[in-house]
């Protein structure tokens, strides 16, 4: 999603929130919410469409009035209606709406009856016992509000990697057009592919910093310049994200890249290693006394310490320096190593594209295979498939496969794991499939013991090929459910079930640490997009980033294998329960 669309969508959401706080007509509120979603999902940058003088495309559910607002936001970055709404109520009130459990109705009561405008004030009101006395609240609600606000305030304000990528790509394109610029790299946690980033660190190589800094602070999305000097600046963008810029000369670029890529812990460990050899390392280079012995490239910095280059994703001081010293750094998996995707949806359930469109998109990406894995019947909100619809889709897939050579479409399902660990579809529905991806979508708050038992039982089912998004977390929104992951992995290993690394930016589940546990235990990881629309295959790159952070090599990943080696590993094809040697990679590596 282009950044501009994100900003327009955020503004439309804010209009909806504020209208709702005013008790506006619910249909009007809903129209703005729907418009926000449409804009967010629109595949092209609306601003450039409008800037080029093209007429705004006719978007579903967006009439002339809303189209006018979108045009206004795209052209000016402002909207008279929103400014008016903002002027009529406290600025901080929308932050209160972000607190889980506080909808517009409750926020409005807190504001009108208690004068509460900020999360801090709401917390105080809860602790003073003022909330429970409000009409329709009571002791229990007061307690849940108190806990939710405390959690909200404790949360570090970090943004998801995929959102940061939208901002970073646009900013790099803007900076790249200034003359005299040599290289632009986004460093920091972004380059290490952390699942969330606190701010963005841009590093530029150029002889003269001033025109670069000028261009940077002139970026149209800059809301506030926080600091500015001849070779550095910090700004806050609209939407709140902070960006730090540093400009260095070419001879220091590698040293600065190492320094600003971090992590801080990795840098400290490098410096310690340097000190042992009488070397000083800083963002300008590696020095012996006053003499610079390295600096222009990252390779030169590591080479000065007798180390091979360490990939940014590994730079967390989790053993990578020792591994580099003794030559045991993994050859990390790359996007190009993936032969296909084992988790995708279509418009038969809650996806947005047809089976044919998803297949065509996967084919044009060069996949050898794509598994279609819809939700199962229990997911009524997403029109999950029952046995009959699943069988019908299976026949459609067989027709597609019969009509083409090249990419193979696999018949699959993302079947719900029920509370007791049974699967949501009977064995006769699962038996004809090429792959069964099993997933927990309910009962997140079970005790560790019950949750672990439930998942172990699902893994024992000989139909199950892959456990999807194994921890169930949604980044920044829902904590992982409580399970004994080492025990789950031991069972997976014994049963020949693989773990998914779901590459959806909200999930990135498995975590990096769990990926590494899989590697250590010999459990293969399936890096899947969970695409609900054709554009979402692109999310695989975030899954690859996470996998690299988890030290995974191509052989550790299930879907780096060609189809002929993949199929036997899915425990299908008449072999109810292959021995566990079949699932260990090793000789089966691609
Ligand atoms: P973030 O922004 O919280 O997601 O994480 P980073 O790693 O991007 O951290 P940030 O933006 O504060 O700093 C960027 C890099 O600069 C960091 O990864 C390492 C380097 N750095 C920052 N402060 C220090 C420091 O005090 N000592 C050392 N050795 N390096 C530092
Ligand atoms: Ca940063
Ligand atoms: Ca920073």
Structure description:
This protein is of the alpha/beta class. It has 3 domains: 3-154, DNA polymerase beta, N-terminal domain-like (DNA polymerase, domain 1, Orthogonal Bundle); 160-325, Beta Polymerase, domain 2 (2-Layer Sandwich), CATH 3.30.460.10; 335-574, TIM Barrel. 42% of the residues lie in helices and 14% in strands. It contains 24 helices and 17 strands. The strands form 4 sheets. The protein has a 7-stranded parallel β-sheet with strand order 11-12-13-14-15-16-17. The protein has a 5-stranded mixed β-sheet with strand order 2-4-7-6-5, sandwiched between helices. Strands 8-9-10 form a 3-stranded antiparallel β-sheet. Strand 15 (466-467), helix 21 (485-495) and strand 16 (498-502) form a beta-alpha-beta unit. Helix 8 (119-127) crosses helix 9 (138-154), helix 13 (253-261) crosses helix 15 and helix 20 runs parallel beside helix 21. The chain is globular and about 75 Å long. The model is unreliable at 573-590 (pLDDT under 50). One calcium ion binds at residues 188, 199, 201, 244.
How would you summarize this macromolecular structure in one to three sentences?
This protein has 590 residues and is α/β, with parallel strands linked by helices. Helix content is 42%, strand content 14%.
């Amino acid at each position: 999603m282009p950044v501009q669309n994100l900003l327009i969508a955020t503004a439309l959401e804010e209009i909806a929130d504020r209208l709702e706080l005013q008790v506006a007509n619910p249909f009007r509120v809903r129209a703005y919410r729907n418009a926000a979603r449409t804009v967010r999902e629109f595949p092209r940058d609306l601003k450039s469409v409008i800037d080029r003088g093209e007429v705004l495309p006719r978007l579903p559910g967006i009439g002339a009035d809303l189209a006018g607002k979108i045009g206004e936001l795209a052209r000016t970055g402002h909207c008279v209606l929103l400014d008016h709404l903002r002027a009529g109520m406290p600025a901080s009130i929308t932050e209160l709406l972000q607190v889980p459990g506080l909808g517009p109705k409750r926020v409005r009561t807190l504001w009108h009856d208690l004068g509460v405008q900020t999360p801090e004030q709401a917390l105080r009101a809860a602790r003073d016992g003022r909330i429970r006395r409000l009409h329709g609240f009571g002791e229990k609600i007061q307690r849940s509000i108190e806990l939710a606000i405390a959690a909200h305030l404790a949360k570090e304000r970090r943004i998801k990697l995929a959102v940061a990528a939208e901002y970073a790509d646009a900013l790099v394109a803007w900076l790249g057009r200034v003359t005299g610029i040599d290289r632009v790299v986004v460093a920091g946690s972004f380059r290490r592919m952390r699942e969330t980033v606190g701010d963005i660190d841009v590093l530029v190589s150029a002889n003269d910093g001033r025109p670069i800094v000028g261009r940077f602070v002139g970026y149209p999305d800059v809301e506030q310049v926080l600091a500015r000097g001849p070779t550095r600046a910090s700004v806050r963008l609209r939407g709140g994200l902070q960006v730090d810029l540093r400009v260095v000369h070419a001879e220091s670029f590698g040293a600065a890249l190492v320094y600003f890529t971090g992590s801080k812990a990795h840098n400290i460990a490098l410096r310690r290693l340097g000190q042992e050899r009488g070397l000083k390392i800083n963002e300008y280079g590696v020095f012996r006394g006053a003499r610079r012995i390295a600096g222009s490239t990252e390779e030169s910095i590591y080479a000065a310490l007798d180390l091979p280059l360490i990939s940014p994703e590994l730079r967390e001081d989790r053993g990578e320096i020792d591994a580099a010293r003794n030559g045991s750094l993994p050859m990390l998996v790359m996007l190009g190593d993936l032969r296909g995707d084992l988790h995708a949806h279509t418009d038969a359930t809650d996806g947005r594209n047809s089976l044919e469109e998803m297949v065509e998109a996967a084919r044009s990406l060069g996949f050898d295979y794509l598994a279609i894995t819809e939700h199962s019947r229990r997911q009524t909100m997403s029109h999950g498939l029952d046995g009959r619809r699943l069988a019908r889709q299976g026949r459609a897939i067989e027709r597609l496969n019969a009509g083409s050579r090249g990419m193979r479409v696999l018949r699959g399902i993302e079947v719900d794991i029920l509370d007791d660990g049974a699967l949501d579809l009977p064995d006769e529905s699962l038996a004809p499939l090429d792959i069964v991806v099993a997933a927990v979508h309910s009962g997140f708050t079970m005790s560790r013991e019950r949750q672990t038992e439930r998942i172990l039982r699902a893994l024992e089912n000989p139909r199950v090929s892959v456990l999807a998004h194994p921890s169930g977390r949604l980044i920044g929104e829902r904590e992982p459910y409580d399970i004994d992951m080492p025990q789950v992995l031991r069972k997976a290993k014994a049963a020949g079930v693989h773990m998914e690394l779901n590459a959806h930016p909200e999930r990135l589940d498995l975590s990096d640490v769990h990926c590494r546990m899989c590697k250590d235990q010999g459990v293969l990881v399936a890096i899947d997009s969970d695409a609900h629309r054709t554009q979402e295959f692109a999310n695989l790159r975030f899954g690859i980033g996470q996998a690299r952070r988890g030290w995974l090599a191509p052989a550790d990943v299930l879907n780096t294998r060609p189809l002929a080696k993949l199929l036997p590993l899915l425990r299908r094809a008449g072999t109810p329960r292959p021995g566990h040697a079949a699932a260990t990679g090793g000789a089966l590596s691609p």
